[in-house]
Amino acid sequence: MGSYQTWLGEGPELSVLRLLGLFDRPVDEQALGVLLIPPAIPDLTESLTNLGATEWRRILAKLRRARLLAGEDPHSPGHLDTHPLVREYFGEQLRSQRSDAWKKCNRRLYDHYRALAPQLPDCFRDMEPLFQAVVCGCNAGLYREALHEVYIPRIQRGNASFAANILGARGALLSVLAHFFEQGRWGSPVEVGVQEFSLTREDKLFVLMQAGLLLTATRGVGTPEARICYERAELFCHSANRPVDLYAALMGQLRHSSATDKLTTTLRLAERVHALAQQQSEPALKLGAYRALASTLFFLGDFEPARQYAMLGVQIWRSGSVQHRIEEVTGPAVACLYNVALSEWHLGAIASCHANMAEAISLAKRTNDIHGLAAALSFAAFLACCDGIPGEVERLASEVMRNVRASQFCSLAGASKGSSRLGP
Amino acid sequence: MVPYMLALKAEALHLASRTLEALEAIKEADSLVERSEERWLCAELQRLRGVFLRAMDADETQIEALLCQAISTARAQNSISFARRAEATYAGCCRQKA
């Protein structure tokens, strides 16, 4: 690539290649136009601004002859594309050697993409420009603005977690969220940037919790990066006195622990969650704590206490006292219901077991709780298997598979074979 | 749930007349249970080991001991369902012996 650079020499062709390095996909005319309009971006677009159409075509033709630019795509006229290695080389060069120009370009693209999307997009296609806006905003150093003006209000719609829960775009969200962290380090939200634009302590806590949740949802409960996020988040919670976030951070660690540690270690975490919930006397926290205790005790083989804790959770949920919802991978009420059912099966209360399992499945469907639904269906398949009803096992396993295919949750990949470890 | 998956695998291997491999799967499940303390399936693993050993014409005392252990584990955990399964297997074993 260096040879091409020497051969081309500093000039408009290299500037075009550097501009293409700003994108991870073919660039459309509109986005490119945003970068080329006056005033020129110093150290980058001086030779490209106010260029005539003939001269522009000549530059592109030269790059195409050198095979540094893909031929024109008749289906996407005006789009420019190049090989990912070319993109990577010149993009990195722009980022590391001309960082002011890199930031100015990203600033323009940030404004362009956030204006391009509807205020509150309803589908993935309409949401895409907002994902790009956040990435560009972060690249421009506008971390706080990208978070508070795009990611939270428009992508996730505040507490609704719209893109994650309604659109199911968890993988795309995770790619976007990665830009709020130091390169490749999920436990370290970015520290650089001007004070005015950088993330506050609360923002860092927010992105850590989001990352923990999305990493768990997309890579599985045992993913070490998620644990790192939650452990770091716990430190922020203690210093900022944030009990609800502390609860979520502990639950995140507990999920990871349930897949990787001895269950007695997980139980200690569940007891910490329980103590916190009792101290706060908050129904949502208590519901989650009972679910954590029930699930851990069930897998430890302590079925009677598991049933009791799960029942306490179900009672809280049925009382309607849970006013606010805490974002979790699996809804706690669904988990309590299937834990009651599983414990009851062991304890011989078969009729009640089936009623509770049916309610867990129905609630998961009603609340669009994809993880909860897959877990409940898997456990129902386990019960059908134990009861010797192969037709029912097949039906439930097929339903789990449909769920897994419709989502991107590797943690559920084993579910179709009977059930997977879908603990707390 | 991995021990449960291994138990399913073991049953499938046994049905395919690959009982020696089925026992290996149970051994792997046991070692996972030991490491993770995931004891909810212990009684069933003990029962399955008994079933597989019986299919291999192993020592009857050993098989009986395993099935009794499965019943006792299930009872200690208050698992009526697993206890019934183990008792049924044990009863089948005794009937055959008689």
Proportion of residues in helical segments of chain A: 55-70%
Instruction: List unreliable stretches of 5+ residues of chain A.
Output: 409-424
Backbone shape of chain A: elongated
Count of DSSP E strands of chain A? 0
How much of the sequence of chain B is in beta strands?
Answer: under 5%
What is the SS-derived class of chain A?
mainly alpha
Helix count from the secondary structure assignment of chain A:
20
Radius of gyration of chain B: 13 Å
Please give the share of residues in helix of chain B.
Answer: over 70%
Average pLDDT of chain A, to the nearest integer? 88
The helix count of chain B comes to: 5
Structural class of chain B: mainly alpha
Task: Describe the model.
The complex is a heterodimer of chains A (424) and B (98). With 424 residues, chain A is mostly helical. Chain A is 67% helix and 0% strand. In chain A, helix 7 (124-139) packs parallel to helix 10. The radius of gyration of chain A is 26 Å and the shape is elongated. In chain B, helix 3 (42-55) runs antiparallel to helix 4.
Strand and helix map with partners:
The complex is a heterodimer of chains A (424) and B (98).
Chain A: H1 2-8, H2 12-20, H3 29-36, H4 53-65, H5 84-97, H6 99-116, H7 124-139, H8 143-155, H9 162-166, H10 170-177, H11 201-219, H12 224-240, H13 243-260, H14 263-280, H15 283-300, H16 303-319, H17 332-347, H18 350-366, H19 370-386, H20 390-406
Chain B: H1 2-15, H2 19-36, H3 42-55, H4 60-76, H5 80-97
Helix pairs in contact in B: 1-2, 1-3, 2-3, 3-4, 3-5, 4-5
